[in-house]
Write a structure and sequence with these properties.
It catalyses: D-glyceraldehyde 3-phosphate = dihydroxyacetone phosphate. The protein has helices at residues 26-42, 61-70, 96-101, 112-118, 122-134, 147-151, 155-166, 172-175, 196-214, 216-221, 235-239, 256-263, and strands at 15-19, 51-55, 76-79, 106-109, 138-143, 179-182, 223-226, 246-249. By secondary structure, it is an alpha/beta fold.
Length: 272
């Protein structure tokens, strides 16, 4: 049976964002972007219909910028994190001002690996969201629950609480451009499996929260991504969900052929 087609408003252009994590040096990153661009061009990919972005490590960004701008590629790019501070004695931090100077469009904020591995609190995530907006960057605001929360049935309440905290002080004008990425942490590397219905349940709750905070018009325009082990063989079913507008792709994004296939998810709809 064919997957049902997505019914999102026309204004919500699907976004496929590849999070490379701590993989690929600047030379490898350049080669990956070249291969990804070639693969998408060979498939006559329409970037206006499905936006494609990559989030390389900080040290790769200048090389990616040079390639994208020099060859006038349609790919977007961004960073995996930023400092809540603009400048100063913050050893190891990267300012949003630096990312903006490198031409970044996006920056991931509050990824589960930052929250869990680096102890980032909701307050830190909220400060980083504000820093992104201060420097003209679009935050990809990540949220998600662990296995214990999921088993107790608290996933919606947990994610809603994370987003309320992260969006505190964000204006309606700013919220209109935010991208939300839902990560079912419980289904990543645990042996548990997240279904498209699992994704829809939480993504719909996210949109309901946005409507409560900012009104239905803004909520209907915000893109909500799914970030749970997305691959070419499951993306069509995920994207068929009404409130899923794209994917934050991890490991599969450093395989240019696989990521390109994910970006061309509409090609899979007829056979899903």
């Amino acid at each position: 049976m064919a997957a049902r087609t997505q019914t999102a408003p026309a204004g919500r252009v699907p976004l496929m964002a590849g999070n490379w994590k701590m993989n690929l040096d600047h030379l490898q990153g350049t080669h990956l972007v070249q291969k990804l661009d070639w693969t998408l061009k060979d498939a006559k990919h329409d970037h206006a219909a499905v936006e494609v972005a990559v989030l390389p490590p900080f040290t790769d960004l200048r090389s990616v910028q040079t390639l994208v701008e020099g060859d006038q590629l349609e790919l977007k790019y961004g960073a995996q994190d930023l400092s809540p501070h603009t400048s100063g004695a913050y050893t190891g931090d990267i300012s949003g001002a630096f990312l903006a100077k490198l031409g970044c469009t996006y920056v991931a904020v509050g990824h589960s690996e930052r929250r869990d591995g680096h102890g980032e609190t909701d307050e830190v995530v909220a400060a980083k969201v504000k820093a992104a907006y201060a420097h003209g960057l679009t935050p990809i605001l990540c949220c998600g629950e662990g296995l214990e929360v999921r088993r107790e049935g608290g996933q919606v309440a947990h994610v809603v609480a994370q987003l309320r905290a992260a969006l505190d002080g964000v204006t309606p004008e700013q919220a209109a451009s935010v991208v939300i990425a839902y990560e079912p942490i419980w289904a990543i590397g645990t042996g548990e499996v997240a279904t498209p219905d699992d994704a829809q349940e939480v993504c719909a709750a996210i949109r309901s929260l946005l409507a409560e905070l900012y009104g239905a018009d803004i909520a209907d325009g915000v893109r909500v991504l799914y970030g749970g082990s997305v691959k070419a063989n499951n993306v069509a079913a995920i994207m068929a969900q009404e409130d899923v507008d794209g994917a934050l792709v991890g490991g599969a994004s450093i395989d240019p052929a696989e990521f390109a296939s994910i970006c061309r998810y509409r090609d899979h709809l007829a056979t899903s």
